[in-house]
Amino acid sequence: MTRAGIRGGHALQWLAVALVVAVAGCKHEAPVREPVVRALCFSELPATMKVISPAVWKPEALFQLLINGYDPSTGKVSQPPTDCMGTPILFQDPAPGDCTEVSQAGNPLPLQPLTVEEMIITEMRLDLKLVWAVVRRFSNGEAVGPVALVEATPRGLAVRALGTLKAFPKSARLRLERIGGVEVLLVDGERCWGEEEKKQCQRSVRLMPLRGNRFVAETLAGPDGKCMQAANIALSRTATQPLPSRWMRKYEYTSALTVAPDGIRVAEQITAKDSDPKQPSSPPRVYRKAQDERLIQVGQGGLKVDKPSVWSQLVESGATEQLP
Questions:
Q1: Measured at the alpha carbon of residue 166, what is the angle toward residues 80 and 187, in degrees to the nearest 5?
Q2: Where is the segment annotated Disordered (predicted)?
Q3: How far apart are the first and last CA of the chain?
């Protein structure tokens, strides 16, 4: 081969090396596409709206995210109501006889157009919130609707967890607690009834463990594995009972929840007092007083409670609970 040919061959080799380096450099500098947002439901944000904007969390936007067939112009929801995954918005309460203690169920009220009062939001982080959209109310003060863990991402609103919640919506507070290695949704709310001078209120806490990406309605099982009650813990209850002496016995019950890594401790107290309706000014006599503590444990197999409530143990048959 001539000297010129050798020089030409070396030139071609250097050209090939330069092309490889250039291609490698182009691959390194190529823009990386944003990964697809994985969510149960997703709603894109307008290009001009920032994630930190309060407008991201407008009730109308959240209703549209969580409820199929929601019309923002009227606030109406198509029937039968379904959530953003097409699941009917229904909550299955334990039937009479399924559990040792069953609360009185309310009757569903007609669907009404949704307003800002039907959207309950609890902030966990600036970009992460617990959201409950109240779709239907009941005669006993309860309400039902989709509950979700919603994250604001650069692309839009993403539903990370979803379920159907039934609880008292008045003054409701939502929070997530890690118990026994499981995230549990606790919803504290109240119902009130009666005239302002004789107004009565009752609070309760609904428990819903997060199983995968679903908030699940479960019951509390006793030591024998059978259902003891719904996972709805009353914080206050009252009942009255007429006595053969024509006196009236009144039961007053209160409880307080303490959340710990090993479970939920429920400190209970109940007092039964007798009074003479003919002498309303006379102080009532204490008939019985008791207190106890229950432990609710959360595991992969469900919710368990170690003993029945003092309410179910001490309130005698013939007593009538005061309800709306």
A1: 145
A2: 270-290
A3: 106
